[in-house]
C-alpha cells in the first residue's frame, strides 16, 4: 500500500515519562517544530490535555479482569503472554498458527499517536507502537471472496477472574469490514510509549481503530478469521440497540442513555471543560469515504 499515515499529533500532546523524556527532548528541537506545524485544523484548536503513562495504564477497560477501571491494572499480571500465537484462518491462502515473535520479525514497527475515544464518552491521546493490520493480512494472503475480519481475545478463565461473570459472552469478539481492516490507519499495537504493551492494555497484540469507539479495539488477540459474513461481536451481542457493528465515533448519534456530542479527556483534572467530539474522532478526511452512501444513524 503506497499511502502511509502521517501523525497529526506530536509528543507534546502526550505526557512523557521515564525513558520517553529523552526522546521528547530531542524532538523539542528542529523536528518538534516541524511536527507541531502539521497539527493544524481542528486538532490545533482543541487544547489537547496530555495523557500520562499512569492514565493509560491504570484507567482501563478489559472486562476479562473485572469491570472496574482499576481492575485490569490490578489483575492482568495473571495473564501469561509467552509463548503467544495467533491463529489466522478462514478465507486466507496461508492459514495457520503464527507465533507472535515470528509475526514481529516480518513486520515493520512504527509509532502512531492517536486520539482514543471510548463509547462511555471519555478519551485519551495514546502513543502506540505497532504495524498496519493490512501488512499482517497480506502475510496470510486474503482470498478474493473475503469481506470481513473477525477477531477473538484469549479466553483463559484461570488467569482471567472477570470471566467468572457473564457480563459478556466470552471470548471477547470484534470485527471489521475488510476495507476498514485494510485501511492504513488500522493498527495492530504491540506497545505504548515506546515500551511493550502492559498486560492491562492488551499484551502482546491488540487492535487499534482510532475512528471507532474504543470497544472495537480488541485486546490480547489469539485468532483472526477472514469471512464473507458480518461476524458476531461481543457488545453488539450483549445489547444490539446500544452497540452497533460499525461503532464509528459520531457526535450526532447519541447512545440511547447518553449524548456522544462531547467527551471528557482523561487526565484533564476535575474541572476541565468537556471537549466537543469530532466526527470519526477527527479522522474523517481519511475514512469518511469508506461510508459514502451509508446512513450512519442506522448503521451506527
Ligand atoms: N478483550 C477485550 N478487549 C477490549 C475490552 C475488553 O473488555 N476486553 N474493552 C474495550 C474498551 S470498551 C475500550 S475503551 C478499550 C480500552 O483500552 P485501554 O484500556 O488500553 O485504554 O479496550 C477495548 N478492548
Ligand atoms: Mo470503551
Automatic annotation (TrEMBL):
<dbReference type="GO" id="GO:0043546">
    <property type="term" value="F:molybdopterin cofactor binding"/>
</dbReference>
<dbReference type="GO" id="GO:0030091">
    <property type="term" value="P:protein repair"/>
</dbReference>
<keyword id="KW-0500">Molybdenum</keyword>
<feature type="binding site">
    <location>
        <position position="118"/>
    </location>
    <ligand>
        <name>Mo-molybdopterin</name>
    </ligand>
</feature>
<dbReference type="GO" id="GO:0046872">
    <property type="term" value="F:metal ion binding"/>
</dbReference>
<dbReference type="Pfam" id="PF00174">
    <property type="entry name" value="Oxidored_molyb"/>
</dbReference>
<comment type="function">
    <text>Part of the MsrPQ system that repairs oxidized periplasmic proteins containing methionine sulfoxide residues (Met-O), using respiratory chain electrons. Thus protects these proteins from oxidative-stress damage caused by reactive species of oxygen and chlorine generated by the host defense mechanisms. MsrPQ is essential for the maintenance of envelope integrity under bleach stress, rescuing a wide series of structurally unrelated periplasmic proteins from methionine oxidation.</text>
</comment>
<dbReference type="InterPro" id="IPR000572">
    <property type="entry name" value="OxRdtase_Mopterin-bd_dom"/>
</dbReference>
<feature type="binding site">
    <location>
        <begin position="217"/>
        <end position="219"/>
    </location>
    <ligand>
        <name>Mo-molybdopterin</name>
    </ligand>
</feature>
<feature type="domain" description="Oxidoreductase molybdopterin-binding">
    <location>
        <begin position="79"/>
        <end position="235"/>
    </location>
</feature>
<keyword id="KW-0732">Signal</keyword>
<feature type="binding site">
    <location>
        <position position="206"/>
    </location>
    <ligand>
        <name>Mo-molybdopterin</name>
    </ligand>
</feature>
<comment type="subunit">
    <text>Heterodimer of a catalytic subunit (MsrP) and a heme-binding subunit (MsrQ).</text>
</comment>
<dbReference type="GO" id="GO:0016672">
    <property type="term" value="F:oxidoreductase activity, acting on a sulfur group of donors, quinone or similar compound as acceptor"/>
</dbReference>
<keyword id="KW-0560">Oxidoreductase</keyword>
<feature type="binding site">
    <location>
        <position position="153"/>
    </location>
    <ligand>
        <name>Mo-molybdopterin</name>
    </ligand>
</feature>
<dbReference type="InterPro" id="IPR022867">
    <property type="entry name" value="MsrP"/>
</dbReference>
<comment type="similarity">
    <text>Belongs to the MsrP family.</text>
</comment>
<dbReference type="InterPro" id="IPR006311">
    <property type="entry name" value="TAT_signal"/>
</dbReference>
<feature type="binding site">
    <location>
        <begin position="63"/>
        <end position="64"/>
    </location>
    <ligand>
        <name>Mo-molybdopterin</name>
    </ligand>
</feature>
<dbReference type="InterPro" id="IPR036374">
    <property type="entry name" value="OxRdtase_Mopterin-bd_sf"/>
</dbReference>
<protein>
    <recommendedName>
        <fullName>Protein-methionine-sulfoxide reductase catalytic subunit MsrP</fullName>
        <ecNumber>1.8.5.-</ecNumber>
    </recommendedName>
</protein>
<feature type="binding site">
    <location>
        <position position="201"/>
    </location>
    <ligand>
        <name>Mo-molybdopterin</name>
    </ligand>
</feature>
<keyword id="KW-0479">Metal-binding</keyword>
Amino acid at each position: 500500500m503506497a499511502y502511509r499515515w502521517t501523525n497529526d499529533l506530536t509528543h507534546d500532546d502526550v505526557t512523557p515519562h521515564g525513558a520517553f523524556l529523552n526522546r521528547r527532548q530531542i524532538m523539542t528541537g528542529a523536528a518538534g517544530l516541524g511536527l507541531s506545524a502539521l497539527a493544524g485544523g481542528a486538532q490545533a484548536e482543541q487544547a489537547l490535555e496530555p495523557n500520562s503513562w499512569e492514565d493509560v495504564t491504570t484507567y482501563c477497560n478489559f472486562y476479562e479482569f473485572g469491570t472496574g477501571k482499576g481492575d485490569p491494572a490490578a489483575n492482568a499480571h495473571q495473564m501469561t503472554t509467552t509463548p503467544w500465537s495467533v491463529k489466522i484462518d478462514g478465507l486466507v491462502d496461508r492459514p495457520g498458527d503464527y507465533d507472535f515473535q515470528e509475526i514481529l520479525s516480518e513486520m515493520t514497527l512504527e509509532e502512531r499517536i492517536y486520539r482514543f475515544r471510548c463509547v462511555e464518552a471519555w478519551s485519551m491521546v495514546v502513543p502506540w507502537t505497532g504495524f498496519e493490520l493490512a501488512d499482517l493480512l497480506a502475510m496470510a494472503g486474503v482470498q478474493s471472496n473475503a469481506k470481513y475480519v473477525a477477531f477473538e481475545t484469549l479466553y483463559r478463565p484461570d488467569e482471567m477472574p472477570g470471566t467468572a461473570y457473564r457480563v459478556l459472552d466470552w471470548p471477547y469478539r470484534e470485527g471489521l469490514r475488510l476495507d476498514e481492516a485494510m485501511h492504513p490507519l488500522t493498527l495492530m499495537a504491540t506497545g505504548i510509549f515506546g515500551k511493550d504493551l502492559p498486560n492491562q492494555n492488551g499484551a502482546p497484540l491488540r487492535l487499534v481503530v482510532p475512528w471507532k469507539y474504543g470497544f472495537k479495539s480488541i485486546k490480547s488477540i489469539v485468532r483472526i478469521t477472514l469471512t464473507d459474513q458480518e461476524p458476531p461481536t461481543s457488545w453488539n451481542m450483549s445489547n444490539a440497540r446500544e452497540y452497533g457493528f460499525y461503532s464509528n465515533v459520531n457526535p450526532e448519534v447519541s447512545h440511547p442513555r447518553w449524548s456522544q456530542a462531547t467527551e471528557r479527556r482523561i487526565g484533564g483534572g476535575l474541572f476541565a471543560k468537556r471537549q466537543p467530539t469530532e466526527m470519526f474522532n477527527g479522522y474523517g478526511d481519511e475514512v469518511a469515504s469508506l461510508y459514502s452512501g451509508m446512513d450512519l444513524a442506522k448503521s451506527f
